[in-house]
C-alpha cells in the first residue's frame, strides 16, 4: 500500500506538472498516524522529494519473496461478506504479480470462490480473456441475487420431524433399574440453532435482501467525532486545525505557502494557504460576515486531492 501511494502521488504530479517542492508538500499534508510521527521526527533531514521518497520506502515498504507471494495467493479466498467482483480483481492482481498464465489464474481464482456452484460453472466453460470470466461471474451473481429475492429459505420438514422425535425422546423420564421408585428429571435440550437465517439489510433493517440491493435511499454517513452527517471520523475536517497549529511556527521552505492576509484594508492579519492548483479562492463564511462582505448564495462542489468527500460551498463574495 505504501508503494502504491507513492506511485499514485507521482502520477498525479506528472499529470499536473508539479515540481518536487509541490510533491513534497502534498505528501507531507496527507501523512497520518505513524507515518506523520515518523516525518515530524525527521523533517529537518528531509528537505527534498528524493530524500523523502528514499527514506519513506526504506521505512514503510518491504520486498516480498516469491514464496511468500505464492503462499498469500493460495491462502486468499472469498470472504463471507465480500462481493465476487472485489475478490476477482484482487485475486487476479496477485496472479499477475507472479506472472501466471491465464488458465492457471482462472483455476486459482475458482478455488477460492465461496460458491461451489459458481466454481463448477466457470470451470466447465472455456475462457480466453480475463473479461470473459468476469462476464460469467456477473451473470451468475445476478441470477443468484434474483433467486434470493423470489425464494426465501424454508425449513426442511424431514429435519423438523427428526428434531421433534429427538425432543420427545430426550424429555421422556428415565427410570434406572436400581431405583425404579425415584423418577429422573427430564433433560431439556439446548435451544435449536437456526440453520438458514434470512439475510437482513443494515440500511432499512428489513429481511430478504442485503444493503447493496436495497431499494430505499442510502442512509447518510455519520461522523463519530463531530456527530455531523456526510462523512466519517477518518475524514473529519475538525482535525485540520491541529495540522495548522503544528506547522504554524515553521519558517523554512516547507511553509512558504502560508501567508498573512489582510481583508478590506484591515490591520488584523489572518493566515492564508496558497494552493497553486486550486481554481477558487476559499474563505470561511464566518470571516466573510465578520468583515462585512456581501455573500451571494450559490452551491459549489469543492473537491480536493485524495479519497475525501467533496465539500459544498455556500456562496460567492468579493473582497
TrEMBL record:
InterPro entries: Aspartic_peptidase_AS (IPR001969), Peptidase_aspartic_dom_sf (IPR021109), Retrotrans_gag_dom (IPR005162), Znf_CCHC (IPR001878), Znf_CCHC_sf (IPR036875)
One GO BP annotation of this record: proteolysis
Signal peptide residue numbers: none
SUPFAM superfamilies: Acid proteases, Retrovirus zinc finger-like domains
Superkingdom to which the source organism belongs: Eukaryota
Keyword vocabulary terms for this entry: Metal-binding, Zinc, Zinc-finger
Domain CCHC-type stretches: 200-216
PANTHER family linked to this entry: CCHC-TYPE DOMAIN-CONTAINING PROTEIN (PTHR33223:SF6)
Any one GO MF annotation of this record: nucleic acid binding
Protein name: CCHC-type domain-containing protein
Amino acid at each position: 500500500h505504501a508503494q502504491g501511494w507513492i506511485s499514485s502521488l507521482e502520477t498525479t504530479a506528472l499529470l499536473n506538472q508539479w515540481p518536487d517542492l509541490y510533491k513534497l508538500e502534498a505528501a507531507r499534508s496527507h501523512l497520518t498516524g505513524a507515518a506523520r510521527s515518523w516525518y515530524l521526527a525527521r523533517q529537518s533531514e528531509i528537505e527534498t522529494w528524493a530524500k523523502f521518497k528514499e527514506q519513506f520506502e526504506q521505512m514503510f515498504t518491504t520486498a516480498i519473496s516469491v514464496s511468500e507471494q505464492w503462499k498469500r495467493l493460495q491462502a486468499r479466498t472469498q470472504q463471507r461478506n465480500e462481493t465476487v467482483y472485489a475478490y476477482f480483481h484482487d485475486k487476479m492482481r496477485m496472479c499477475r504479480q507472479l506472472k501466471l498464465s491465464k488458465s492457471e489464474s482462472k483455476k486459482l481464482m475458482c478455488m477460492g470462490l465461496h460458491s461451489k456452484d459458481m466454481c463448477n460453472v466457470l470451470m466447465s466453460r472455456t475462457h480466453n480473456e480475463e473479461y470473459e470470466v468476469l462476464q460469467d461471474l456477473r451473470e451468475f451473481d445476478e441470477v443468484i441475487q434474483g433467486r434470493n429475492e423470489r425464494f426465501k429459505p424454508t425449513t426442511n420438514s424431514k429435519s423438523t420431524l427428526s428434531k421433534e422425535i429427538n425432543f420427545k425422546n430426550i424429555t421422556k423420564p428415565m427410570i434406572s433399574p436400581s431405583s425404579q421408585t425415584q423418577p429422573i428429571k427430564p433433560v431439556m435440550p439446548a435451544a435449536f440453532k437456526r440453520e438458514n437465517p434470512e439475510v437482513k439489510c443494515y440500511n432499512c433493517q428489513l429481511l430478504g435482501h442485503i444493503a447493496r440491493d436495497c431499494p430505499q435511499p442510502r442512509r447518510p454517513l455519520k461522523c463519530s467525532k463531530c456527530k455531523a452527517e456526510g462523512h466519517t471520523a477518518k475524514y473529519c475536517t475538525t482535525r485540520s486545525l491541529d495540522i495548522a497549529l503544528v506547522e504554524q511556527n515553521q519558517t523554512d521552505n516547507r511553509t512558504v505557502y502560508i501567508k498573512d492576509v489582510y481583508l478590506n484594508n484591515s490591520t488584523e492579519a489572518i493566515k492564508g494557504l496558497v494552493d497553486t492548483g486550486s481554481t477558487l479562492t476559499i474563505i470561511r463564511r464566518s470571516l466573510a460576515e465578520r468583515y462585512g462582505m456581501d455573500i451571494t448564495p450559490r452551491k459549489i462542489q469543492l473537491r480536493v486531492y485524495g479519497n475525501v468527500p467533496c465539500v459544498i460551498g455556500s456562496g460567492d463574495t468579493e473582497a
